[in-house]
Amino acid sequence: MNKQIININNIKPFIDQCFDRDSDKAARIIKGILDARSPRISDISNAMQGNPDANYKSIQRFLDNNDPRENLHRLFNKEEEFIIGDPTEIHRPQAKKTEYVGKVGKGKKLGFWLMVLSSPYKGRAIPFNFITYSSKTINDESSSRNLEHLRVVSEMKEIIRDKVLVLDREFSYESLFENIITEGIKFVIRLNISNNPTILNEKGDKISLTINPGDEVHFRGVYYKGKLKVNISGKWDKGFNEPIWVISNIAPEEAMKIYGLRMKIEESFRDMKDLLNIDKIMNYKRDNMEKMISMVLLSYSIGLLIGEGIREVGYTCKKRKLYSGLFILLKRKVLLSKSVIADIINNAYLLFCDMVLPNARTYVSDV
């Protein structure tokens, strides 16, 4: 990592906005995560300044005394029109006896699902909430995938309020549509048409979900499986192998526009896995695992904001599209003056404060 850019002094102000206590320890851990590019406590403790054994115990005490999941909620961006829900598989092939590890995905591999709620930011996403679940936790908690999906939405209902919730086709099923509508949440979900869902108009006639390349169609006030009144939009962009269909309870034209913006954000999980190795998390207890995921997501968000600032200033033309901001921060040599870097960090800090608090205090980086 560009250690001349990231240091405790310029990370600490970000952390102060999220943590009311133990912010010094949190800042050291966040920097350790960025330096180690790992969620494992052993890797983080080795990357931190000081004795690794003492660092390890310090991280454990921090997790015992704090719940970073609550601090992560502060990153919810009130100014954005919509939020994004994304699931990803975290594989743990050796963790056969770990309490939260079960079977995930079509391959039934050992692991768990991580579902993150995020706010969009410049082609990426800033996470503010998540849940984890697997076949093991679902069975143990007398739950189901559907109820787990609804749980993360219900938990944040008061925060979401009038925002539009955007989800991919893993969430395309009747019970979730019905529950989201009952909760009064606006939504845009990519429709899974592989199972040929029945869509009826007000007269009860079946609507054919067919479209030609280059076309876009909208259906208002139609009935999913003849029961739920929704809007349907379809679009087949040139160069794509198939059209996209979305189901929503907002204006269908707006729904397709919003989903189009969501499609540009899929690289966030790739950055979290490739650059911060979030899929290498090793905690034995589920509670500590979720606390560490929160710390990784906070690290990702701070690194992303600073890295995107570097990308905008230091990378132009075609090179800007080659790398994400976090990749540049962690893996590329940055040839910018200290004063320019200080300005970038200050601007990133102000953006961060806009997300977390309505009134940010003045901070000047000492890079």
Task: Give a quick precis of the structure.
The chain is of the alpha+beta class.
CATH topology of the largest domain: Transposase Inhibitor Protein From Tn5, Chain A, domain 1
The helix/strand series, from N terminus to C terminus, equals HHHHHEEEEHHHEHEEEEEHHHHHH
Largest sheet: 10 strands, mixed
Per DSSP, the total helix count is: 15
Number of strands: 10
Distance separating the two termini: 15 Å
What is the radius of gyration? 22 Å
Describe this structure in words.
By secondary structure, the chain is an alpha+beta fold. The chain has 2 domains: 8-71 and 289-356, no CATH class; 76-267, Transposase Inhibitor Protein From Tn5, Chain A, domain 1, CATH 3.90.350.10. It is built from 15 helices and 10 strands. The chain has helices at 8-16, 23-36, 41-47, 52-65, 68-72, 135-140, 145-155, 157-160, 174-182, 252-262, 267-274, 286-314, 319-322, 325-331, 338-356; strands at residues 82-91, 102-104, 109-121, 124-133, 164-167, 186-190, 199-200, 216-224, 228-235, 244-248. Strands 1, 2, 3, 4, 5, 6, 7, 8, 9 and 10 form a 10-stranded mixed beta sheet that branches. A hairpin with a 4-residue loop joins strand 2 and strand 3. Helix 2 (23-36) packs across helix 3.
